Amino acid sequence: MLYRSLLLPFLFIVLQAGAQIQTQFPAQNQFDTYRQSGVQEKIFLHTDKNFYLAGEICWFKVYYVDASFHKPLDLSKIAYVEILDKNNKAVLQAKIALNEGDGNGSIYLPATLESGNYRLRSYTNWMKNYPADFFFEKNITIINPRKVYDGDSVQQKEAYDVQFFPEGGNLVNGIRSTIAFRITDQHGKGVTCDGVVVNEKNDTIRKISTLKFGMGNFEMIPSSGTKYRAIFSLGNGKKIESVLPAAYTTGYVMHLESVDNNQLKIAIETSRDIHSAVYLFAHTRGSVKTSMKADVLNGTAEFIIDKNKLGEGISHFTVFNEERQPVCERLYFKYPAQKLSITMKTDATGYEPRNKISFEVNSSNQDIKPVQADLSLAVYKLDDLQGLDEMDINNYLWLSSDLSGTVESPSFYFTNINELTLAAMDNLMLTQGWRRFKWEDILQNKKPSFDYVPEYVGHIVNGRVVKAGTGQPAKEIDTYLSVPGTRTQFRTTQSNAKGAIKFEMKDFYNDGEIIVQTNNQRDSTYTIEITSPFSDNHSNKPLPAFKLPNENATTLTNHNISVQVENVYNGLKQKQFRLPALDTSTFYLKPDITYLLDNYVRFTTMEEVLREYVKPVNVKRRNGKYYFPVFDELRKLFFETDPLLLLDGVPVFDMNKFINYDPLLVRKLEVVSRVYYMGNTFFSGIVNFVTYNGNLTNYELDPHATVIDYDGLQLQREFYSPVYDTRQRAESKLPDFRNLLFWSPNIKTNEKGKQNISFYSSDLPGKYVLVIQGITAEGNTGSSVMQIEIREPASVTNK
Q1: pTM for this predicted structure
Q2: Which residue has the higher pLDDT, 26 or 574?
Q3: Beta strands of 175-322 (E only): which ranges?
Q4: Which domain holds residue 329?
């Protein structure tokens, strides 16, 4: 008897241990293949602040990283930045150059804007292949004191949205389930309330209440044939009812709980009366962390997960049945241990107006060892209109960017982590879903299709060639894009079967027109349409309610005065732009011969110029048409066809027209005396005429050419911060009403993790906040906030 009593527990332990096996999930290879089909990207924008007046400048730093490891990425070279209004209409747009995961820019907020809340968003061309929920988004407020605000034309009615989320995704009759819920108002903000769950007889099953941000959870065992309702009592005395999801007769239920600091337990229950197996598959942002198999015994299976095997941030646990069908899914958050620690030490805590403010920045890792970091810093005035930003690079990359819905007050989850924080985080995981793929696509071996390519060389101008009159796509048509100017920017491409064309533009800095055309001597019956590179897709995240801050009228008036004073006295200084170091050579690099026409006798006709001293170019005339064949230095004879003839970078196809152009307007002529290949096209030499102004002076374009305004990459605006390093400058009578004291998007700490920064205070007393954040090459992120005070000058306080 003793032997049998010892043997039974032993067999039970063996059975339990044998129920969980570390194994490769049968579809893991399919998952890996799908995941490796394309890199995932994330973008974060650090803005100087989040409250603006029309007439101010919104400054921002772009952090561009891979979505899996958050390391700075050097794939896409362009970030698109937009400000959208409440109707998702873009009111301002910009293209920002990226270099090794880094970029920065600014947007001037014009007086044409209406007062309201706006959405600032950013993405790459490659990110347009995925839903707009993947784009970076941030809410900002813009007030226009010069426009009367009449309120929203359509007032939003008070409305509440109640959603229930059974853990794992399913309710099954007779099985205990955890059910999370979320209650939000018409602006997407969580609502605090209490409630009860009742059955059809109005018997109370459970009392429930929200924990934080309108979210909570409860447990119940649904009964077959019974319908359940939740009745919520709001703080304003109103009550709302909502029906719980119907329970299935058969299915699987999943429950996750933390065993201790090192382990998680995932319990699976099913009503299916069969002996089977289930698989647990876990990944963190596409990186596989564990794969297990367990036998279902008496309707239950259990998995024990080592937390150390999970990646930091959000992990997905997916349960599959024996037929490899996904039956349950759950999110879990693991707080990142690898952090970037940023500290700031100022030379004082209080300053007088126009004082020098100096401080040292230190960056270190979790082991308090110095580490180099890429940082951005904003120093702005705090008041009852401009507070601290809830979003930073840390909580965005680790949390918000991997969830489909809005995360209310994301900083809450990373500040004072305790039992309340952990419980609120678990509710957030239960009520959110986020997957960058569909399991059915993976299991069916569907390869993802991509309509947009990464811009890894430069900006891509897209368009379409159609037949005039019919609008039908035209294939295999040579098209040419030019940016008029002294810096020759010229590209050519051929339309595909759908008539689509694309021009890859490296270092495309342009704030004027582009000219796109076909060869009008050969293809004059086609029209070219250029498409916008900005996305038409939008997320469904609601903007918060906007109300004109009438109760803060004095503060708003002071802000308005500051903006007007700064624009009057320093407006021109904020319009200084820095031209990046560019390769200014033409696309053909070095010409074989260059003619500066002012060094020669200035003839009055183009034919005389070419005949008299441009020896590599012959002038011929056949059947009333001019030809300009170029001498081929390789074969030592003239080409039989015309060269690519350019005027300020714009191709000219009508030689009879060009022969009458005034040569006195031309400053320079360059000749390429060889076959030149450009993509799938080749030219019998190149003859490039450049005018003095680079603007096609007095030249009339062919009417078939498409001329449109098209902005290229944004030039970097220089942030103006006055220097009061002498008594004369400090005592200047020019007012200094800056409420943004300093902005720097390019702070780099050295190998010792240090960097010294200094700037000067303005004439406005008050509390100011220093917000610095950034990233390391390994993908560790961090931020830091510090406050200083600008006091009234001593001469004023003494009075």
Answers
A1: 0.91
A2: 574
A3: 177-185, 193-198, 204-209, 215-220, 229-234, 239-243, 252-258, 263-270, 276-284, 287-296, 300-306, 313-320
A4: 160-334
